[in-house]
């Protein structure tokens, strides 16, 4: 099946500047098994490091029509909870959907006490959804090594990062 692509007129997806917030870091995008698109973005401090910090949490919007229109923003509760605890931030940089429809979000965990709040890194974490991103699991450690996950893919029902 050949797909036809077309460019659309650019529009502001999230106007962080109007709320004195920023959108640095956290930029995952995934197509759900049902065809919906979930677009994840950060909601971070505007004044820390001129908006280039990771001090904040993740939100997302859903599209049912291939990205032409988007539902209202939803706070990703796991990320907000980590931020509210005041020790770390949890920014979602990768998302994958497995063959059975399980969505996995992978998070960079950083030190919230430092101005940039982008590092040092702690062990990365993940959450999953089995209902096209309507509900999410609690966070779990993805691996014991401290670091940042730079890429991820799914093959069948396995996730590689």
Structure characterization notes:
The protein is mainly beta. Helices cover 6% and strands 35% of the residues. It has 1 helix and 11 strands; from the N terminus they run βββββαββββββ. The strands form 3 sheets. Strands 1, 2, 3, 4 and 5 form a 5-stranded antiparallel sheet that branches. Strands 6-7-8-9 form a 4-stranded antiparallel sheet, covered by helices on one side.
Stretches where pLDDT is under 50 for at least 5 consecutive residues are: none
Largest sheet: 5 strands, antiparallel
The N- and C-terminal alpha carbons lie at a distance of 29 Å
- Taking all residues together, what is the mean pLDDT? 90
* Structural class category: mainly beta
Oligomer category: single chain
Mass-distribution shape:
globular
Question: Could you spell the SSE succession in H and E letters?
Answer: EEEEEHEEEEEE
Strand content: 25-35%
The number of distinct β-strands equals 11
Helix content: under 10%
Number of helices: 1
Gyration radius, in Å: 16 Å
Key phrases:
five-stranded antiparallel sheet; four-stranded antiparallel sheet; 1 helix; mainly beta
């Amino acid at each position: 099946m050949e797909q036809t692509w077309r460019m659309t007129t650019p529009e502001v997806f999230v106007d962080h500047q109007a709320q004195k917030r920023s959108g640095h870091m956290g930029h995952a995008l995934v197509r759900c098994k049902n065809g919906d698109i979930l677009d994840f973005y950060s909601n971070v401090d505007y004044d820390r490091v001129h908006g280039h910090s990771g001090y904040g949490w993740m939100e997302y919007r859903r599209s049912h029509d291939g990205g032409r229109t988007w539902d209202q923003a939803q706070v990703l509760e796991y990320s907000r909870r980590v931020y509210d605890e005041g020790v770390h931030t949890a920014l979602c940089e990768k998302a994958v959907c497995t063959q059975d429809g399980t969505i996995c979000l992978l998070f960079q965990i950083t030190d919230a006490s430092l101005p940039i709040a982008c590092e040092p890194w702690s062990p990365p974490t993940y959450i999953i959804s089995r209902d096209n991103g309507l509900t999410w699991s609690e966070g779990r450690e993805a691996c014991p090594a401290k670091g940042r996950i730079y890429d991820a893919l799914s093959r069948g029902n396995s996730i590689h990062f």
